[in-house]
Amino acid sequence: MRKTIIIAAIFIAVSVLTAVLLLNTSENKVKATIFESDQELNVTVMNWKAKLNEKKGIHLLYEKYSETRYEYWLFFNQNDNKNLYQKFKMDVVEDNGVVKIRINDVNANNDNEVKHSFAANFLISNEPSSIEVYYNGEQQSFEMTNIKTGDQQIHTKFDGKFLKLSKPVIVDGRKRLLPMKDTLEQMGWEFEMSSGKITITYHTPNSSLSHYLQLQEEPNLRIVDGILYVHMYYLGTITNTEVAWDEDAHTINISTEEIDDNDEDWNVFDEDESELSDKESVRVNYGKYGRSATLQALSKLYQELEQEGNSADDVLGFYPMDGHSGYFNTPMDVVAFGSTGMDGAHYGFLTDFGMVADLEEAPIVLVSPMDFDQPAVVVANNIREFIRIVMIDSSLLYMGYQNEQDYLEQNAAPEYESTQEDLENGRIVRERLEERLHPPVIQDPYTYSEKVRAERMKQIIVPTQDELGILNEHPKDAGRQHITIVLDEDIGKRELETFLSNATYASKLALFRDYHLNLERFVYNEAGIDKAILSEMKSLGLQDEIARIKANRP
Q: Is 113 helix (H, G, I), strand (E, B) or coil?
């Protein structure tokens, strides 16, 4: 199969743009073959080039046949919409193991020299230590793809200059790892490692700065084939530099000055807002929903009983609340309604991102803010069934008893013995609840909550990290596959935007739920993540959920 290096210049301009290729090779045995049309290219290269026709920049494709034969292709797409009347000159040289490709603008002589696309390839006998591409004398970044694996070479810049690393950047999922010693030394740092102890030092005319690291204690360091690698963002942390990923140029940019990412959204929810009044707190908590009729009746009964010298919260295990919870990990689609008074635990209506029409129908969750991995669990189908269970014993909501016998055995020796006054208070409260609210009878209260959770699991169409899941099926998504994306601090904005443009409504809601769960845990390395998610939430009309997030943040 005939291999080539594609050299193409495509200009989108107001008037006719002229491009002519003049190929000069030096006497270092670099040869090139020119092709006049894509029909002369093999299918692999033709498909590769077709994907790049609208993508500005310099792109290389390579394949290693043996230790003495390496084949390269280059696609140069200027695509800068300038009205230029010029042609191009390109030469390829080999200089002490470094392959240098130079492309220069040259004035065109006539319109006949116009070539909107052209291709060439060259072979070299030894693997180059590095490849450099220059356009009009300035070194350029470029993509380089392995024709067999599809892997792209990553470039590294320090204060605008390319680093010549002896080992390639390693890609592990979303992580990009740089050869640590090589990178630091080219940044002007001294590097020493002995018995797993690492010392890096930077000297200035008046002082020195050193950091001491233990290899076994640093998850962002890794040894691969005897070479120590460092996570690109952690490199920025220990050297006090700005590190950013350029997806288009496939380049890691390291800078001693702050990198202008044109994003002011690192903390999009940290707005300088005054504390909410009681009225505003209720409005934020309830959003579009009106008060639950059952909860209103219950709150009124609490007040009456209190005036009579009795306590409903001693029996039911919570007292009503109207305002927002004030805890950052209360799910954003939960309307809080009752506090247990212990470790911030509270109950709320789970609206499933507004899918519930009336709070009377909403599932009830118990939110435990100290449980950071699964802060909320569903405990009842609705507020009326919830009241029946807590009238019996609120521990039935979360203890997971197997049956009545199991319940009786585990509560055979209570920690606190009820006084006669407690028993009388309980009798009065339960009688009054029966009279006013008529809660439904639960045939098996001992396994009720476990069955409720099991039934919800069957209804989930997209799982979430907190196990609440997503039940919302949008009519327009009928027949579509629900995809998911894993959030971590290394997720890229381009990857996120691609997901959002292809995801179903339910898949997006799953992302939002996972994002909120990790809101205080993750600091995203790439700018724009928070803003992209917030913008998508706004576009889907989730203003109530956004308002609760802001109100509940510490």
A: helix
404 in Cβ contact with 385 (< 8 Å): no
Identity of the residue numbered 296 = Q
Beta pairing, strands 251-255 & 155-158? parallel
CA angle in degrees (0–180, nearest 5) for 470-471-473:
110
Taking the C-alpha atoms of 209, 157, 266 and 492 in order, what is their torsion angle to the nearest 10 degrees? -130
Chain centre to alpha carbon of residue 85:
45
User: Mapping DSSP to helix (H, G, I), strand (E, B) and coil, where does residue 101 land?
Assistant: strand
How far is the first Cα of the chain from the last one, in angstroms, to the nearest whole number? 63
Torsion-angle region of 318 (φ positive above 0: left; ψ -120 to 50: alpha; else: beta): beta
Q: Please write the tens of the pLDDT for every residue from 506-515.
A: 999 999 999 9
How wide is the angle at C-alpha 220 spanned by C-alphas 214 and 221, nearest 5°?
Answer: 55
**33 and 121 Cβ atoms separated by less than 8 Å:** yes
* Cα separation, 361 vs 350, whole angstroms: 10
pLDDT, tens digit (0-9, with 9 covering 90-100), for 257-278: 875 555 545 456 655 567 889 9
Question: What does the pLDDT look like over 216-227, one tens digit per residue?
Answer: 999 999 999 999
Which residues face 144 on adjacent strands? 60, 153
Assess contact for 186 and 163: CB atoms under 8 A.
Answer: yes
Query: Taking the CB of residue 60, how many other CB atoms lie within 10 A of it?
Result: 21
CA pair distance 523, 109, nearest whole angstrom: 56
CA distance 510 to 460: 11
Radius of gyration of the chain (CA): 33
Neighbours of 151 (CB within 10 A): 12
Strands 251-255 and 197-203: unpaired
Measured distance CA(230)–CA(252) in Å, rounded: 13
Long-range contacts of 39-42 (CB under 8 A, 24+ apart): 40/2, 40/119, 41/4, 41/6, 41/119, 42/1, 42/2, 42/3, 42/4
In whole angstroms, give the CA distance from residue 89 to residue 102.
8
Q: How far apart are the C-alpha atoms of 316 and 395, rounded to whole Å?
A: 10
495: which 2 tokens? 């990857």
Q: What is the pLDDT of residue 530?
A: 94
Calpha distance 5→108 (Å, rounded): 23
SS3 38: helix
Which of 91-97's residues contact partners 24+ apart within 8 Å by CB, and which partners?
91/23, 91/24, 91/25, 91/26, 92/25, 92/26, 92/30, 92/32, 92/122, 93/25, 93/26, 93/28, 93/30, 94/26, 94/28, 94/29, 94/30, 94/124, 94/128, 95/28, 97/126, 97/128, 97/129, 97/130
- pTM of this structure: 0.75
